[in-house]
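Hi, here's the filled form for the chain we discussed.

Project: internal
Contact: R.S.
Residues: 424
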Amino acid sequence: MAKTPRMRAIGVLFCTVGCLETDALSLRIVRYRDEHSANPHWPVTPRQIAMPAAATRERHNRTATNQRRNTPSDSIEEFQKDVSTVLQDLRGSVADPMIPALFRRDDNGGPSFSKTWTLSDWERHSSRRRYLDYLWTFRRSRMLRSLLPQLTVLASWSLLTVMWLVPSITSRLHIPLAPLSIVFTFVAALLTLRSNQGLDRLAQGRAAMRMALWNTRHLAQLLASSVYFRNPYLALKALRHVAIFVWMLKNFMREDEMNISDIDILNAMLDPKDAAFVSRHRKRPVAVVTRLLQIIAHLSDQLPIAEQLKLKHAIQRLNECITTCERIRASPIPPLYTAHTDLLLTCYLFLLPLALQGSGMLHPVVTFITTMVVGYAMLGLDEISHILEQPFKLIPLYQQAKHSMMDVADAIVEEPPALTALTE
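And the returned structure, exactly as it came back:
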């Protein structure tokens, strides 16, 4: 059928109108993309672009209302002031008040792993004079004071043995040294393995706290560089939670009386609602992580996907630190292993003075001295393994919490200079 000139004119008109509508829609898509290029949900469909104007106005009005409702009532100056209040007034002491006095430091100011070390501590620790220092301060050493009850019992038993028991039972009972030396081999091996397990648990505890310190600092730097210029109010709210994370983790690991008094830190750093939420939670560090995740989720429409993933990954590592610390605290070295080792150690030290004095090769004074030296060495190794088994009791968590809070504050307070383009 031949097309008339009128039909051809109508076809050209429809094609022209269709092309114009397509160009207009494409122009609207390009404009929307330019305005919302930071939206993680891009690209959008033409149906979303072509939404009614009333719905668009309603959405913008709703966003403006929320922004007015979340008008920043916080500032970097207030944040810095609150951090200074915690570090100088509430927790101004240098030493951890919850560390047992026996392990804080020696009477002569000797180093201890219950505090953070300085270069002077390392120089003294590696000095060649350390042997003379240890001999001179032995009577005031932490180990001697810790083992005093056990050594007192051993000394009483040794004196009783060399002065009265051995002369009366030597004719009827003889304990050879050879079988006792075999028992000594087993006891020494068990004590060595237990000490290695204690050192491994100490290394795991230190690694968990190292990750907590690293991730709080890294998270604070991300919030300061990527979130603060977009939403200062929520960025400072998140930074306040990051600053108290290590404090909450310290108290959760120790379950001490300071866990109650640390409410003053919550009241100083957080608003009343956040402080009440964290304080009533069964696991306070978990409450801090939950609040941080909620803040990042609220900022999802303001942050690119890459920035969201970085922030969520850092928060996830904080959760891993909590889990690692819980595992170390809740799962000790098997008590059956400990009981077996202590039982063999007790039997060996009980029989040692009898065997030494019964051999007739040593003077009673030499027997007493030998028993005390061997007892100090083996009981000391057993005591060290028990100390290291629960590392969070003596790890310097107090100083680490203060350092973490200072690092978080430095990330937002110490603003780097602006980057300017180089011009020739």
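Let me know if anything looks off before we file it.
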